[in-house]
Each structure stands twice: as structure tokens, then as C-alpha cells.
Design a protein that fits this description.
- The complex is a heterodimer of chains A (153) and B (83).
- Chain A has 153 residues and is α+β, with helices and mostly antiparallel strands.
- In chain A, 27% of the residues lie in helices and 29% in strands.
- Chain A has a five-stranded mixed beta sheet, with helices on one face. A two-stranded antiparallel sheet of chain A has the order 3-4.
- By secondary structure, chain B is of the alpha+beta class.
- Chain B has one domain (4-79).
- Chain B has four helices and four strands; from the N terminus they run H-E-H-H-E-E-E-H.
- Chain B has a four-stranded antiparallel beta sheet.
- In chain B, a hairpin with a 3-residue loop joins strand 2 (57-60) and strand 3 (64-67).
- Classes of the chains: A alpha+beta (153), B alpha+beta (83).
Amino acid sequence: MSEISTRTAGQTETLSTFATLRFSGDGLEPERVTAIIGTTPTLSYRKGETYFTGPSGQTATGRTGVWYLSTRRVVSSDQLADHLDHLVMLITPRTGPDHVPALRELIARDGLEADISCFWHGTAGAMPPNIPAGIRKAIERLGATIETDFDTD
Amino acid sequence: MAPVSALYISAMARVIWNSPRNPTNQVATTLGVSRWRLRTAVHEIKKRSKLGARDRITIYDDGTVRNANGEHVGNIYEDSRAD
């Protein structure tokens, strides 16, 4: 007799999950990305600019320009898909203009890279989540790479 | 050669991890945080510092994180705070 798991992938056994959207490049001017997306990033800096790494006031210097948005403290869901959906809605809102053409133009003109990372940590034996095909397609339209960082206890 | 600031920190804090891989349970235990909080912090620090998943980091027992050039890029305690 086959055994069917009653576990739902990446649901109740998730200890931490979030996604990040990052634009980077030596020619990055963060306000250009912000102007297109219309959302303030978690952190942004130009190449060579000093930025705070945390509340203690310690600083680092940007090796390149970065515009970085993390859903970790923005989306309160243990579903990775909800975090990715939040990012997709920023670049392709359900209402209003699609930002992908403008972002692609900026990426090409300023020599930027775009990437999305998916973080998930589950309890021992938990099933890692899947990235829904629709979300993957939306990310690929932007020309962004997708990186997964999945692990369990 | 490591920057002076890195040497100064190193004199006070002990290196507990120096690898491109994800830190082990032992690192989490030494820092007194759960492994998922440690991994969460490392992921955020690497992403915002434009480091790749396979880039080497050094973690000290005071939570300080430095990149392969010895530059400060974050602190595990600050980045593993409760969401």
C-alpha cells in the first residue's frame, strides 16, 4: 500500500520564508528604480557609497550599486508564493501600468543585473515549497535570475 | 593582508566560521541563535551586500560578519532579530 503524506509543502512546517528583489550594477542610480516601481527599497546605495548595515550604526561601503527589497518584514505569511506574489505585484501591478518594459530599458541602459532570491527554512523533514509557474514566468519577463536557498533543520 | 579594522576586531572576537557554505548548527549554537535565524540573517546580509550564495564570509563570535576582503557587511544578532 502506498503511503500518502499529509504534509502540505512549505505550509505549517515553515520556520522562515521570504523573497528579495535586487537590482545592481556600477551604474545604478537607486532613485531611478524607485521612480519606476514606486516603492521605497529596504536598502539602496550607489557604488562607493557608505551605508548602514544595522541599527548599531556600523557601516559598509558599496562595492557596486544596489537597490534591494526584502519581503521579510513586509509580508507576514509562511507561504513563499505570497512573498513572491508581493514582488511580482510591484513590477506588474494588477491595476496601473506594467513596469517591466521601463525596468528592462533601465537594466539595458545602465548595465544592471536583476535577481530574485527565495529563502525558506523548514522543520526537519518538511517539504520545500514550489515556485508557481505564473510567478516564475513574470520574473523571467523582467530578465531576472531566480535563486533558491532552501534547507531544513 | 586584512585591513587594520579587521585585525582589531579579530583581536577581540574569535572566528567561528569562514566558508562560502551555509553555516552549521555549531555556529548557531555558539552564537546562541536557532539555525533558521542564522540562515535568515546570512541570506539577508549576502543579498544586500551583493554577495553571491557561494561567496565566502567570516563570522565572529560577537556576530560580526565580514566578506572575503575583511570588510564589515553585517551582524548576525542585528539581522536575526524577531520579525
